[in-house]
# Entry
Amino acid sequence: MRLTIMNTSVVPRNHHTPPGTVYLIGAGPGDPGLITVRGRALIETADVIVYDQLGAPVFLTLARPDAELIDVGKRAGRHTVPQPEINRLLVEHAQRGRQVVRLKGGDPMVFGRGGEELDALVDAGIPFEVVPGVSSAIAGPSYAGIPLTHRDCTTALAIATAHEADLKEESTIPWSSLSGINSTVFLMGVAQLANIVDHLLRQGRNTTTPIAIIENATTPRQRTVTGTLADIVNRAHEAAVKPPALIVVGEVVRFHDRFNWFEKRPLFGRSIAVTRASAQAATMADRLQALGAEVVLSPAITIHPIDPNPLFESFLHEINSYRDVVFTSVNGVEVFFNQLRQRGKDARLLAGHSIICIGPATGDACRQHGIIPDFIPETFVAESLLPWFQNRPPARTALLRAESARDLLPDGLRRHGCQVNVIPLYRTDFVPQAGADLLTRLRDNTIDAVTFTSSSTVDAFCRWLAATDLDRRTIPAVAIGPVTADTCRERGLQPIAEASVHTIPGLIDLLLQRFGRTS
Ligand code: SAH
# Structure
């Protein structure tokens, strides 16, 4: 993926290439789940993506690896690329025959300057499509539990800009018309709040009229401040409200207390770091997000099948000399079946063997491949496998697992007289750098929990810490079970909590108990 900060080069036009299409796509208000299916599909296939909104980076990860990504937005120390320059970029890239996605926050046609871009495209004869988005003006109030219209009190709704330029001496906003409309949403208005209130009062709106400010709507940082035209300026000042924010004026604001679903979710306002390998992080992140948490993804390990793998080859060769095959992780199951597939084999290879899967998730992974496990012990301690072995005559057992896993389990089983052969299937490599802004956030004390789902994630995390001055004892480590918690302690972390059910759902339950709001 190529990242171009701002491409000002003049691209020579090739007269023989038919122009590509420009897609004006609404990225939605911030919650990544609020983009349209069509918008997403076009991002995945675009040659060029011109973007400018803060919520966009998450969608950029969907782009083709060779797509050109052009940032025309405000970033530290730089100003927005001027609109004529953006128009020119769209036209020129399309003229080179490229499919161009122009990604804009909310809906491209709601105070998004979409019309100006279409003007430029029409002038240049470039084909285009508009993919509407969920506007923050609509989504923000919904996420704040404010129904923009309500049968009891609304017959008309207005969406207005309150940009500084529109509020100068001769305001271009039709204040007298707005005064007769039940619900009004102002965009770009935080800095102008006092001015807006002043205009509304001068038009005869009552001082008791309810008003809400919704900051960072639809994101884990959403905050709603409510009041009346009489006190909202003070309240906003006390709360230090910052853009981006929406202002909603009207009786409908009264419903906020009753319908405020989003900010009341159990983990809302909590920031949870997830260190497990990115391939597996998604399901855990999805569940945490659904509970309202902000998820800070920072995969600490990557999984690589061992290849070539002589021990696995001899295992396949002698598989009939084994009675039991033990899988210790979902990764082990996935790598195993992939390796079989690559050799033109399938689950029938396991016919006649007893399959033991440690933990319910490993069991589920096996079922996905058509194998119903014979026994699913809950934990990694040897004792949890003994009920299986104690009722059967001794036989060879293959333990399929990670290369660097600890020997506690096989050693424990051997002590009980089991014949265990360890077959390493995959390596876990440490990710050299912490993801996103995890370390900065830890330093700022804005992470409530760093979750560890295996000892290797702890080891990798501690390597990141070694390069910083962060005190290990201050890290809010949360471990999936006793083995991972022990590794934490050995590395100088002091786990603040340890799940009693050693699964992802068990870990999430623990986070709910520890951090969940009750009201
Ligand atoms: N086309 C966009 C609006 C662009 S104007 C849309 O349809 O949403 C930019 C203004 O939108 C901001 O100043 C702010 O008032 C509002 N806005 C955009 N995203 C927001 C968010 N997540 N929370 C609150 N306000 C938001």
About this structure: The two ends are 45 Å apart (CA to CA).
